[in-house]
Design brief:
Blueprint: H1 5-14, H2 65-79, E1 85-86, E2 95-98, E3 104-110, H3 123-131, H4 146-160, E4 168-173, H5 182-197, E5 214-220, E6 226-227, H6 228-237, H7 242-262, E7 272-277, E8 298-303, H8 337-347, H9 350-364
Antiparallel strand pairs: 1-2, 2-3, 3-5, 4-5, 6-7, 7-8
Helix pairs in contact: 4-9
């Protein structure tokens, strides 16, 4: 009898199949798939590789080296014990991800910790499901697709050049601070113990030591922003100067366009941010110096929390999910010429629209095969 056989059988019972993951887009799939694939010089940058169902996902983004460096720095930090920190606000499991220096670099939202995910660490949605099942979920949305909605909003923002959504892509991360069930933690401990005790006979056969990675959305962290509630209240008592007011109106119009196109069902004033830089720089030393060289205040908007968008039908009439910005003074003004010139030429191009739809289809197609991504 082979003395290694009992040990091998133990490993086979404990070690799950290798993680099935995604891979970046292959070069042989970049050929024209629609009239725009070879026209106009536009680049298609899907947030997931088109062959994700067949290959391994390695958090590899060759089209976006900056984002890939951020994810690598997050992996290094986790390996060194700097774990993501749970965000206590909200109704789902979401985490501030840090780099090796402890600086926040992103927000990670695992799929199975979404508001209606089975590993959501927040008890409010569980209580709602038990006590009021008739109001559980949103009938116009596919449940547990929020991470794809987050990435989809970023894709629309990128294609339309709105620049209001922080870069968001689908990644896989594992951390002790994520919410795992008891079985996953027990398997992880057992695999680690066997690897340490029998490194040659068992350890080399174990595909991964540690907790299984979670699929979710990773949104780049934006600094210096505060929620719209804060600044809108300030603007009521301290009106913006005319040039800054014009800047804000243009940024606000970009937010409106985004929400209309993705049909966001959860746009309150607490999930879009404003950054207002009120520092005006140094004054000219002499009157002869040009005052145009003085740095002017800047204002920017960031649209976050886009996980409840892309409904497959119109919301029910009794829950219309209105846009809360619709009551703001900026919403009562006609669209400016600048936003029309930016958006209308793109939406009038049926080739562009077709390409955008195809990219969104490829992104959301991952949600159709949950059993193949280890969830």
């Amino acid at each position: 009898m082979n003395p290694e056989r009992p040990l091998r059988s133990v490993v086979e019972d404990i070690v799950p199949p290798p993680d099935v993951t995604f891979a970046p887009q292959r070069s042989d799939l970049t050929g024209p798939r629609s009239p725009t694939r070879g026209m106009g010089g536009r680049e298609s940058q899907p947030l997931l590789g088109r062959d994700h169902e067949h290959h391994d996902f390695e958090n590899h983004f060759p089209d976006d080296p900056v984002f890939m460096d951020v994810i690598r720095s997050a992996d290094v930090a986790i390996e060194n014990g700097i774990y993501p920190e749970i965000i206590y606000q909200g109704s789902s499991g979401s985490y501030f991800v840090k780099n090796a220096e402890g600086k926040k670099i992103g927000v990670f939202k695992p799929k199975n910790e979404e508001p209606y995910g089975h590993l959501n660490p927040k008890w409010t949605k569980w209580m709602q499901k038990i006590c009021c099942p008739c109001c559980f979920g949103r009938s116009c949305l596919v449940l547990n697709q929020g991470y794809l909605s987050e990435a989809g909003a970023s894709l629309v923002d990128l294609k339309l050049q709105l620049n209001v959504v922080p870069k968001t892509r689908v990644v896989k991360l594992a951390s002790e601070t994520f919410n795992y069930n008891a079985a996953d933690r027990a398997i992880s401990r057992t695999k680690k113990s066997l690897s340490e005790r029998f490194p040659d006979k068992i350890g080399r056969h174990i595909h991964r030591v540690g907790l299984p990675p979670k699929v979710g959305s990773f949104q780049m962290y934006v600094e210096g922003y505060r929620d719209a509630y804060y600044w809108l209240g300030k603007f009521e008592t301290e009106p913006l100067p005319e040039p800054i007011s014009t800047q804000f109106a243009f940024q606000f119009e970009r937010l409106v366009v985004l929400d209309y196109i993705i049909r966001n069902t959860d746009r309150g004033n607490d999930n879009w941010l404003i950054k207002y830089d009120v520092e005006e720089g140094e004054k000219p030393e002499t009157p002869e110096r040009d005052w145009t060289m003085v740095e002017q205040p800047k204002i920017k908007i960031a649209a976050i929390d886009n996980g409840l968008a892309f409904p497959f039908k119109h919301p029910d009439s009794w829950r219309a999910y209105p846009y809360y910005w619709a009551w703001l003074p900026q919403a009562k003004k006609p669209f400016s010429t600048e936003i029309k010139d930016l958006i209308l030429p793109q939406l009038s191009d049926m080739n562009f629209v077709q390409e955008l739809c195809e990219d969104l289809y490829e992104l959301f197609r991952v949600g159709r095969t949950p059993s193949r991504i280890g969830l």
